[in-house]
Design a protein that fits this description.
about 190 residues, mainly beta, Jelly Rolls, 1 helix, binds calcium ion
Length: about 190
Amino acid sequence: MKRRYKFALVTMGFLISLLLGACHSNELSKPDNEAGLNGSFETTDSGYLVNWAFFPNPETNGLFQVSIDTTKAQEGRQSLQLYNNQSEKTVGFRSRRVVVEPSKTYKLSFAIQKNDGHLKVRRIVQDKSGTDNRRSEIIVDTSSTSSNWETFEETLAIAEGERHVVLIFLFDGPGRLWVDHVRVEEVIE
Ligand SMILES: [Ca+2]
């Protein structure tokens, strides 16, 4: 009886780890603790832009392509290019958690260019543990095409108990999107 119980526990543990592995593999991310936000998309490792998570995993999903475009840059030498080849399918990428401090004000900004497709950007503010979303809002919602860099900004005051900001870019196809110069900077008054 005891052995059977142990076997059931081990089996359950194995199934849970398989499930978690499956969820995790639906994203592509390469962490680099020294690269910070990597908001200018200048830091790569073996061809991957570090510290951004792309979903669904572009390596195992033909839905979209992630690349580095050295012919377009709003800042530095290159930008991120996303190509989503299917209509009404959403692909995207999210930042790592950026640490912010209560009672300070931050300016969030980024530049985009776009050919077709629909872009939404969701900004989430989390608690210290990073598990509780205190606020979650769509700060950009646009279908317009632009062949020049267009900058979006949000000024964000951080409340007590809030400690992280995460940006999630959601892109509905078909279309092509370029992003560069993503920043989260404290506003000094
Ligand atoms: Ca750049």
